[in-house]
């Protein structure tokens, strides 16, 4: 494998010029930089990671902590989309990702043991005892999605817009005549659940309508719970005329329950899904959805973390990426129950 000295000899420049060019540092004329980079590609040059870490005081690795079991994480499109966004920015910045799934101890040790330069915590919980530790010990870190307004901690976060678009979604269902709107949420120690429930309640209140707390169900974000809780909703008297599912895992479970009872969407019940999967538009019928830009959230988290690692701070501490309401065939006008 080629060395920097060999590239310098072939290019007819100094060792330091090659080093600056390969590391994107100033002080090299553009035409010389291009010549050096071309030679590096031709000679199949790869920087020695340990040497680079010593020079830059960085390891070149970002730790990604996923606070769920691997079986759940690998089956849920949310996590793969987050990783896609993280990896695209990390690659451009010269970083690799290290996954730590469902850690049982203080994941800040990844940083203290010099295994990573910083940490992204995915799907952080409100009661996560290790987030305050990251802050107290000044570990470069970003949390996804972070904390609701009024409960923020002194740590960078990246999230989708939860309140505005859920509010729009509930308003849309109300405009169709629905009043019994079920909502399968997740655990209430998640910013996603807290903010989306806030939006749900606000939409009813602003329309001078009362909502029934019994139509709000708390899940573990899984397909199994989606199936179970949709069954609970359909067993109510009267059942909801519409339902909102909080994520790409809950939705298939809820749909399975509806179909297993021979019910037709939207004739018997309207369905609205929150999620990032393209499969939402491939169901029968295609689902009205609140499209969550999860890849962009991952990108924003990576940008912030790299800025913190390399500069000590980030330009925008709390990034919120807009979502969008996509109307499809799974929602229709309310129909009174048959006598």
Number of strands: 12
Based on CA inertia axes, which overall geometry fits? Answer: elongated
Strand order of the largest sheet: 2-1-3-4-5-11
Annotated CATH homologous superfamily of the largest domain: Response regulator
Order of helices and strands: HHHHEHHEHEHEEHEHEHEHEEHEE
Q: Rg to the nearest angstrom?
A: 25 Å
Number of helices: 13
**Residues in helices, as a percent range:** 40-55%
Q: Between the first and last Cα atoms, what is the distance in angstroms? A: 80 Å
SS strand fraction:
15-25%
In the CATH hierarchy, the third-tier topology of the largest domain is known as: Rossmann fold
Class of secondary structure makeup = alpha/beta
CATH hierarchy: architecture of the largest domain: 3-Layer(aba) Sandwich
The parts where pLDDT drops under 50 for at least 5 residues are none
Could you please describe the fold and organization of this structure?
The structure is a single chain. The protein is built from 13 helices and twelve strands. The chain is an alpha/beta fold. It has three domains: 41 residues, no CATH class; 127 residues, Response regulator (Rossmann fold, 3-Layer(aba) Sandwich), CATH 3.40.50; 130 residues, Rossmann fold. α2 packs across α3 and α6 runs parallel beside α13. The longest helix has 18 residues. The chain is elongated and about 85 Å long. The mean pLDDT is 91.
